[in-house]
UniProtKB/TrEMBL annotation:
MF-aspect GO terms: hydrolase activity
Alphabetical list of InterPro entries matching this protein: His_Pase_superF_clade-1, His_PPase_superfam, PG/BPGM_mutase_AS, PGM_Phosphatase
Annotated Pfam families: His_Phos_1
Its EC number(s): 3.1.3.-
Coiled-coil stretches: none
CDD domains, per the entry: HP_PGM_like (cd07067)
Organism expressing this protein natively: Streptomyces roseoverticillatus
Keywords: Hydrolase
Top-level EC class as recorded in UniProt: hydrolase
Organism taxonomic ancestry: Bacteria, Bacillati, Actinomycetota, Actinomycetes, Kitasatosporales
Protein name: Histidine phosphatase family protein
Top-level lineage group: Bacteria
The UniProt record lists the keyword Chloroplast: no
Amino acid sequence: MTSAKSGGRRIVLWRHGQTAWNLERRFQGSTDIELTGTGVAQARRAARLLAGLRPDAIIASDLQRAAATAAELAAVTGLRVSHHSELRETYAGVWQGLTHEEIIARYGEEYAAWKRGEPVRRGGGELETEVADRAAPVVLEQAGKLPEDGTLVVVSHGGTIRTTIGRLLQLESRSWEALGGLTNCCWSVLGEGARGWRLLEHNAGTLPEPVLGDDD
């Protein structure tokens, strides 16, 4: 990534740092879990890199793992963070708090249907399209306030980021799974093109690592 700002507005969608539930492959959803010490260190490292993009604004989920991640970028840029509950992770009902293995053992058919791209209320919670319905408008509203070459950083969660990218790229919802998950504290970049938003970078910020958490 470069620090040059040219060619239209950018949206940087940044996943929060590591949590204990990520390590345990335990579905967090909207449960409010804090960062581990490693997660804080990840956020500080990533913040130094993202500051090179000279962002104009930072918005974040109000869940503490995202808010704490955003605070590290605010500390190095001097920008104020605007928190939005609409940027929270997918509410997944009875799946929340279960490990990946427990979900497959108890709700295997539901999990398989979701992986096939079918509209599934995982654990009785939200549809992916409903997550996009609440998150994408907030991102677009805030991006609309940028200068013509401005950069918005959105600090959120793996599932919410994926659905938001899918909506902004105008992909069919059953294809959103084709967007691979984000590693903790990695990010994706959308750029404004003549025909809408384009994916410029995905899961940037580190060498490839296993994706831990809600996005597997």
